[in-house]
Specification:
With 259 residues, this protein is of the alpha/beta class. It is built from eleven helices and eight strands. 42% of the residues lie in helices and 17% in strands.
Length: 259
Amino acid sequence: MPIAQLADCEIYYEEYGEGPALMFVSGLGGVGSYWTPQIEEFSRHFRVIVHDHRGTGRSTKSKIRYSLEQMSADTIGLMDVLGISNAYLVGHSTGGAIAQILCLEHQERIRSAVMYATWTRADNFFRRCFEVRRELLKAGPSAYIRGASIFLNPSWWIRDNADQEDTSVYGEHFDTDIVDSRIQALLDFDRTQRLSEITVPVLVVGVENDHLTPAYYSEELAKAIPGAKLVILRDGAHAASQTRPHEFNKVVYDFLSRS
């Protein structure tokens, strides 16, 4: 089992293919298996690395106060262990917030970044969504995963997969206290005042029917980052890379291959 030993935790990771390093960074669920629909295609051209965030999946379940800064530091720590001086980065949701921090604090390590289905800072809508998700969390992991499907997936996907509980988003087991702390980290995140300082090439990907991070977040983010490109997908909701992988993969590969 591939494990990267950081200073105070172990990070589970997997890598595929050869070429320039490409880090896929997951969202709140934190597990690298979220990116399964991307691995085969992108590993033809890149050294693809996926990992389980600290507190999720097969990485150390640290009992700490989680923050986006800590998650970003763990990502850099993993790159250091793997000898990656710089990489392309694709971040989903929480991973997109991590990408914002890395593009500001470690721009020499990021060749270009895709910020997908992410947000700028918590507004009233975002806070209301996570109030509901925290109530689901109190009911236990099964209720949380089942309820979260409404936030993550388009209606037609739920229609066609009514009984599927997608462990590729959350892993087989998770600690509800850690998830709650990670949710608070999202609510605390705000880099809006510094986004104009980002100089690396950035693609912002939003989705019209995203119920959790509506497309207006992507529009705001792309407007705030100098030279950022914006693509709004028509369908796929918050987990478009899973529900519409071919369309998502094409948009991302076209950008990475030119940046």
